[in-house]
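Mods, move this if it's the wrong board.
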Amino acid sequence: MTSRQALVKSAQRWETASAIWMVLEAAGALTAGWRSHSVALGGFGADSLIELLSAGVLLWRLHRELVAPDSEDAGRVERQAARVSLFLLTILAAVLVISAAAAFWRHIPESPSPLGLMITAVSSVLMIVFARAKRRLGIALGSQALQADAVEGWVCAYMAWAALGGTAAVMLFHWGWADSLAALLIAYWVGKEVWEIREELEEKKPE
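Not the wrong board. Structure tokens:
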């Protein structure tokens, strides 16, 4: 096994671990959001599902490098997956803004969510660990896709902090408006993801 193959396998292990966590994170956040009527937790869980799609594409790319490094369809599949993610993230950002505004003006009561607090607290730390490992391996492999995925990990950590703050404020101080504020902060980070993906697609558009 060459040193590059060893790095690719290491990247696969980190990507697989993060994908497994994304499944748990999405299930926990969506469940907590539904039970507590939390827009922020629901949005955080939905974004986790979209990032799971991105992780799946990257795992496929890493696998193809091991078995067929000269494959020509890798870039095409990545662009298609990026367009799907762009579409889903745009919808998610719009839903978050509308739902947060509706919850604020209608004063929809949020219930305390210990599950949401636990999920976002763990994610706020774990996603940083994943992001740092992916960035290190992305630089070593010269992989822009892996480095971009590391950036998404940091964005997920920012979202976790926002959702954690909103959930904690509801539980400790009964500040229902904090959940709407957290949802708007998450929508902001989703919007940044949309912008970055759109720019990347424009740069990689075949001439």
